Amino acid sequence: MALIQNSASLNSDGSFASQRQGKQCHQSGVRAIVENMKYRNLYSGLQRRLQELSQSLNLFQYGGRAVELVWSTNHRLTLALALFTLVAGLLPGAIAYVGKLIIDSVVAASQSQAVGDRWDALGYLALEAIAVALLAGSKQGLTLCQSLLRVLLGQKVNVLILKKALTLDLAHFEDSEFYDKMTRARREASSRPLSLVGRTFGLVQDSLALITYGGLLLNFSIGAVFVLMLAAVPAFIAETRFAGQAFRLFRWRAPETREQTYLETLIAREDFAMEVKLFQLGPLLLTRYQEIFHRLYDEDRSLTIRRGLWGYLLGLLSTAAFYAAYTWIVIEAIAGRISLGDLTMYLVVFRQGQTTFSSALSSIGGMFEDSLYLSNLYEFLEQEIPQPFGAATKGPTPGDGIRFENVSFMYPGNAQPALTNISFHLKPGEKMAIVGENGSGKTTLIKLLTRLYSPTSGRILLDGLDLEAWDMEVLQRRIGVIFQNFVRYQFTVGENVGVGDVEHITESPRWEEAANKGMALPFIEEMTEGFQTQLGKWFKGGRELSGGQWQKIALSRAFMRTGADILVLDEPTSAMDAEAEVQIFNHFRTVTQHQMAILISHRFSTVRMADWIVVLSAGELIEQGTHEDLVQAGKRYAHLFSLQAAGYQ
Ligand SMILES: Nc1ncnc2c1ncn2[C@@H]1O[C@H](COP(=O)(O)OP(=O)(O)OP(=O)(O)O)[C@@H](O)[C@H]1O
What we know:
Keywords: ATP-binding, Membrane, Nucleotide-binding, Transmembrane, Transmembrane helix. It contains 23 helices and 10 strands.
């Protein structure tokens, strides 16, 4: 910028000088700007590269964390792994050295023909055989430890992930990025950590071998060792950079991978099969799946080709350095300055050094890939989850019931509030119905009441105390709830009812009582295995229920919480026949006499039985009162009621 200003002032000053002078000044100013830009570009390019490199190098820290993880999984196996790595790393150098001793002693023995020299040669031979046997043993030991650790570690990481998942809020499950992290973590839980450990130890082993080779070469020339190490640097940097790029690619494409997984699920899962078949969606879904694959494959191919090409070219540099040093050694041997044994040892060192070197390079590449996984795993495990802070087990005015005071709520990421300024009071023993068109906020209101979400503003009070101040467990014990999308567990009938109160999940008398209240008992008793009948089709002998029967099971589940004084039913009878519905509600009133109940329904025949009705529209409470009041008022409720009544005439 300074230069641009400078050049401008030169031009304006130039009005006093000759035109030529002005032109010269202008030209030199432009040249300076161009030079400056070049340096700046070069500098920022260099800075970017360094940043990329340091980001890539940062990933190495996960090697340490992986070792920690393995250590905490099983101390003994980790120690054994380290020991075998050490032995497998040091022995190749020792074997090369013993090889030299064998040749030298053979040459000496053939020249002297002395018995002692012959025994020396045979002794070295035996030593080499022992070392080779040890090496094979340590490699086998490594494989053994790794297979055992793989199983233990897979289990440990899976449990860590699942434990964390249990602490998550509902909002986390709805956050697609976070959900991505969790699915990726789960997908590769059993293989990646150990693979990283295997590669970290592999790298240590290769490095040890390279160091011992270097040590052997040191006798020959320190310069040669230095040149060989220097020649390895470009290949190392290139590998690190490409692995870093692969990492970034992996992160960017998370949404595509998720889409692929989703398409796989649609095509291959039993719950979607019926609709996919009937709508003939199969070919369309498969084409989409393949398109995503080809897009990803094109990116992968280009990176893989560049990585391979650069790896080969830069590898050639180290090969050239190797062979230059090798030629030097051969010349020294011809000149008789080193022994035949030395020559053979260096030959082994060079040959094995090359293989070890390329194996170390591929370990580094692999370590990066594994580190990506671990960085994702740790990001998931270390995500802070704010814990509910309330600890109260009772409110200041027991028997006050539930109060909503100016409650508003907006879902994270939404532009419109789902609820605005909702206020009402529900007293103990009262039955309240919520009505409103689709999307008016009925289910959201229930989610706030059950504390799956907290209001954006306003308060919800139970017994005069804000829900936020209640101990979460105590609060949840007081509420029995079924949502419209309740879970159809692939468990037995009894357990499907029992999950409503996990502390009594296996108590069959309770199942029976709850199933009776939920009106599921008659059809359960008709099944040959009764409460022991396996439900769903995932497991052998499983039986499928009708939609209405499932709803009765879910309703019974809500009745498992005998201590609950609040019952929340979100469209509990939508799949039931008309007779069952009437029966259920008459029955419902008698079994919930002292409980508060909140009921969401689109059927006015049900709604009219409530003591109090709340009408929602676009997130606002537009009317409330008894059925008779609201019909008389002649507003929205009366209109909807008469519409539905007309449909039955
Ligand atoms: N998890 C969510 N994330 C973001 N927005 C949501 C979420 N769930 C619901 N919404 C939005 O909040 C509004 C209210 O939804 P809600 O499910 O409470 O309606 P509802 O009255 O229960 O509808 P229905 O009668 O169809 O069950 C809708 O506009 C909906 O799009």
